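It is worth pausing here to work through a concrete case rather than discussing structure prediction in the abstract. The textbook approach is simple: state the sequence, then state the predicted structure, then interpret. We follow exactly that order.
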Amino acid sequence: MVPSIEPNSILTLEEFLKLPETQPASEYVNGIIYQKPMAEGKHSLIQTCLSSAINQVGEAKKLAYALIELTCNFGGNSIVPDIAVFERQRIPLDTNGEIANRFDIHPDWIIEILSPEESANKVIRKITFSIQNGTKLGWLMDCDDESITVFQPNQFPEVKEKQDILPVLDVLDNWQLTAADVFDWLSLT
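Step two, the predicted structure:
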């Protein structure tokens, strides 16, 4: 995430939300705007396959939904997780009973896929900020070493790889997924 305005510039969240959208998306963290890096092949494939797998389990029973590149405004910041997962009962609805366009809540599960030019510590700060503001689970995925660092409230981060079973939201009915399952999607065979 590269700052797109001067670090000395002070902007409120509401001022940021009035700015035109950018491609790729921009995030607002502690008064500074950062533009996310453009997704590349591995990042995009993992994002697509993982969100589909989560939705296959979560949508059938209306338990949870995985949403890609959704802007989430909470705790004074505006972040755009690679995948934001929400338990069904927390998804905001508009006056027509449809999913709202604006999400002023934290995700229940934040998933970030590290891009080659991305700072791991900036992404870790985004995940820990989310955990500190109500998110139940965070994953930081590194496609280069095929590991997933798991973040949970009141616990040390834990690195999962190979046949390690990954924690998922409790509402997903004991769904089990290993780190190898996730990274096997990259082989396309």
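Step three, interpretation. The first strand starts at residue 2 and ends at 3. Residues 1-8 have pLDDT under 50 and may be disordered.
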